[in-house]
Amino acid sequence: MKIEKINDDKLKITLDIDDLKNNNLDARSFLKNSPETQDFFWDVMQEAEKKYGFSIDESMIRVDARVAETGMFTLVVTKTSKDLFSGVKTIHEDKPVDYKLSRIKKEPSSDKLLYRFACLDDLLAYTECTSKSDNSTLYVYNKNYYLLTSVIDDVIADYATLFPNIDSMLATLYEYGKIVYKCNAIENIKKLKGIS
What we know:
Blueprint: E1 2-7, E2 10-15, H1 17-22, H2 27-32, H3 35-52, E3 60-67, E4 73-80, E5 113-117, H4 120-129, E6 137-141, E7 144-149, E8 161-162, H5 166-176, E9 178-181, H6 185-193
């Protein structure tokens, strides 16, 4: 287990598969807010307070849970204002039952596909040869370009890789990626390049 203080209001907790097994937990138990999860959470928060002085007493918090493709499980704990989360209860040490996990709000992905372009040249080459367009979103992350789209196009496979587990990658893109075009990405790239 690795605990990192990102700043005065944000803490990152990273667990591998062995950490979860040793604590009789899995990723689903965090989403169900089980008693075992609450106990584990409070133990980690006590350790974070001793190590970094990161206290959540009298604070509103948001906990974003994420599972990476590698099996690593990450919790990001953010202290925030009451206005931002009016429906979430305050966590008090004497009432751990009030502890809630909030999920990252995401665009519905059920009808969407996510493609990774290894470089900008591949993305540009794809836009030159496709006639299809839709309300797609383009992200950049770690020097790769990610197209969230509902287009089913045989040509795209020549330039990009389809992500089978869209939700886990989208969570990463929402937190760490940068939006290049929020909507109509393919059309916007074509306009930029003068492709009609």
